[in-house]
Amino acid sequence: FQPIRLIDYRPPEFLIDELLLTFRLKQRGTLVQASSMIRRNPSADRRNGPLRLCGEQLQLVELRLDDRRISLQDVCVTDWELIIENVPDVFKLQITTRVDPEDNTALSGLYRSSAIYCTQCEAEGFRRITYFLDRPDVLARYTTRIEAPQEECPVLLANGNLVAAGEMDDGFHFAEWQDPFPKPSYLFALVAGDLVKIEDEFVTASGRRVTLQIYVHERNRNKCKHAMVSLKKAMRWDEQVYGREYDLDQYMIVAVDDFNMGAMENKGLNLFNAKYVLADPRSATDQDYLAIEGVIAHEYFHNWTGNRITCRDWFQLSLKEGLTVFRDQQFSADMNSAAVQRIEDVRLLRQFQFREDAGPMAHPVRPDQYLEINNFYTVTIYNKGAEVIRMLHTLLGPETFRRGMDLYFQRHDGQAVTCDDFVAALADAADRDLTRFKHWYVQAGTPRLTVTEQWDERHCTYVVTVAQATPATPGQPDKLPLHLPLLVGLLGSDGGDLAARVSCPYERRGNDLLLELKEVQQDFVFREVPEKPVLSFLRGFSAPVIVNPFQSREEAAFVMQHDSDLFNRWDAAFSLAEAVILECLAKLVAAETMELDPVYLEAIHYLVGHPTDDRSLTALALQLPAENHLLQALKQIDPVALHEARRFVKQELAGRLADGLLNLYHDNEPSATYRLTGDQVGRRSLRAVCLDYLVLLGEEQQDLLELCAHQYRQGGTMTEKIGALSALAQVPGALRDEIFDHFENQWRSDPLVMDKWFALQAASPAADTYDRVKKLLDHPAFSLKNPNKVRSLLGVFGQNHVHFHHESGRGYRLLADRICQLDPLNPQLAARLMQPFVTWRRYTKDRRQLMEQILQEIGGQAGISRDVYEIVSKSLA
Ligand code: DPP
Ligand code: ZN
């Protein structure tokens, strides 16, 4: 396997302007005819080379050049290319290939899912449909003709506008679609099958009518309303906030059961994992509803950030993904509680991106090499990428940022560009030098900030010194200083903001001050500060960094109670909890008695007694940091001890605060009819958190278990049912079994609900989890061929720190065996499952050895995919 390198990038030697695709669909033996106009690229480095087209898993049937048949003996066909020598400067090429959708288990290219023909071409799936210049900087106009049996496939869809349709012989019919916008091949899509459509309309700001359609199986007809409402909200928001209108007459979404990703932004024809379309209150949780809103918006926003302006090469993936994640986060913050949204985004970043950035797969937001691009659809490209855009937004301020975006759209519409082009547009609009800021794109690793404060009482001067350091990452031993925005507040002893009263040269943003850190170390000086302030540092998490703890627990508790920045209130609770759990762990390891810090207990006690109006915020502040987050602070991870320490803290809190939690629970009953309002979502999530604590007292207090059972039986929404199930999953016993069985019986024919049932069991710390997971692998509703199932059961099990890391190694074995089974079927998904092995070096010696052995074993598999090989080799390097 040869790495692909950014420095090897060359403009394409040929360009394709027009492409006419004809599909004659069959489960096996689909014929694809691709007819294209090809010319040499005037700006290529080389002007006389052969034509090389990418192609994989294709059967070449026929080739015609300028309408003359070429003998297949006269061309060179390898496993990944078709090479034609001596081509003219301009010519027409017709290629006929044969593919077998029914046998395509990789779910890349053209495949079948629940009897629907569909495609997934990002990043490099188009080359599994026909030989092509399958790279994002080749933009062509596509016309797609689909021919299929009318009965099996009454619906035939592709990108753009429908221009012709009709009947044919032998029970076949056809449809012809034309996409007026030139696009790269990764945005191509086709769908054919027996689907119903839900239709609506959107009138754009300039008065154009757009038909909106969601296509699903008949049985799901009534589960599309929320997706449609979300789409319309997203379309309006993009007009209002970014001035971006939709550009075709039709916007289609199709829900697919088997999908490697969340969704795909193909021009005018989005394909979605059904999980991000279908919802009703009976079967979907509040989290599902919010996720659907976010993903629908994300794919819609890609129409401008991704489709109209696309990536020059795949190293620039964050150009569209980081930016579009930032836009969908902004959208969700506007639609719901901004503070809750920010907390959720940061939790995810800390748990997964920080972990990636500290391990052997660490890579910059713009990587400089890869073996398999599918392995680079990562939390770094997406979520750290979004943080990079957020920092630009913070540094420039919303108005200037918007001017920069306008300039970006104006300059590059219709082009395939780089991250440098993007930053240049912002820098030009802002008239600022962003050279140092660009280090964020090329440097991996999470920076650590050290903060020291100095208070001069005599001169009323307060100095904050901030130092930055980024740890070495693979291939990058030395790190440059970064340019980052630090939003801070100064709290007075009454808890109020002092910012307005102090004298300092820093830009004011409401109650916040904007400090710009550019050097390795800098002093920030505030004068005329009336009293020693408590620093509210990094408000809203204005930069993706780790801040070394610098405040006393009393100060943290003060921030938690008083800060005007709601994010920082939560973050104070989070850091306090982290410190307390790690302290207990240290005691546990030293065989000392664990104790709960009274400052922390007092702070949580106050929180439970004084819930804020935004109940979701209280719920979030009550949740302890995940093990996935906590373990990052450890030199050597003993996951079982960590779990015990965290469990101890949770159990102690439950015991000491039982009355308060019970009151919170009873005071916050949601209404009987489902409404997706902040108030109702807050009530449901607060009650779920309370139950999650209280159930731990169930051994002595049976009535608390009954409370769970009651909520499960009486709760009118899936959110309440899952809240109860998730709490009960922690306490093995007859009641748990009864309720899990009941749930299974009720939902066995709804695959999305069964995903939840699998996931809850795979995540459980209960002693019988390993045996259950093993049994569930043979459950009739489980299938290695369905990515949602694989993620729910095996993906979640890999994150189960107690059971995956069982000292016997049986958890490792269970996952490794399934990875080896899955790799030949779906390498992309198999590689994802490798994730829990990647950081093997951080664990205790016995675990380390077991995981290393497993990695070597997987790496030695005959016929290993490039996807899995890349993860194994980087992990062992
Ligand atoms: N479909 C994936 C996303 O939207 C890849 N583009 O992020
Ligand atoms: Zn995306």
From TrEMBL:
InterPro entries in alphabetical order? Aminopeptidase_N-like_N, Aminopeptidase_N-like_N_sf, PepN_Ig-like_sf, Peptidase_M1, Peptidase_M1_dom, Peptidase_M1_pepN, Peptidase_M1_pepN_C, Peptidase_M1_pepN_C_sf
Which positions fall inside the Peptidase M1 alanyl aminopeptidase C-terminal domain? Answer: 554-877
Q: Could you tell me one molecular function GO term of this UniProt entry?
A: zinc ion binding
Pfam families, sorted: DUF3458, DUF3458_C, Peptidase_M1, Peptidase_M1_N
Name the source's superkingdom: Bacteria
Where does the Peptidase M1 alanyl aminopeptidase Ig-like fold domain start and stop, copy by copy? Answer: 445-548
Start and end of every Peptidase M1 membrane alanine aminopeptidase domain?
228-438
Name the CDD domains for this protein: M1_APN
Q: Name the reaction it catalyses.
A: Release of an N-terminal amino acid, Xaa-|-Yaa- from a peptide, amide or arylamide. Xaa is preferably Ala, but may be most amino acids including Pro (slow action). When a terminal hydrophobic residue is followed by a prolyl residue, the two may be released as an intact Xaa-Pro dipeptide
Q: Which UniProt keywords apply?
A: Aminopeptidase, Hydrolase, Metal-binding, Metalloprotease, Protease, Zinc
In short, the EC number is 3.4.11.2
Start and end residues of each Aminopeptidase N-like N-terminal domain? 91-187
Please give the biological process terms from Gene Ontology that the record holds.
proteolysis
Q: Which cofactor does it need?
A: Zn(2+)
Q: Which NCBIfam families match?
A: pepN_proteo
What family does the Swiss-Prot or TrEMBL record give for this protein? Belongs to the peptidase M1 family.
State what this protein does: Aminopeptidase N is involved in the degradation of intracellular peptides generated by protein breakdown during normal growth as well as in response to nutrient starvation.
Q: Would you tell me the protein name for this molecule? A: Aminopeptidase N
Source species, please? Desulfofustis glycolicus DSM 9705
Q: What is the lineage of its organism?
A: Bacteria, Pseudomonadati, Thermodesulfobacteriota, Desulfobulbia, Desulfobulbales
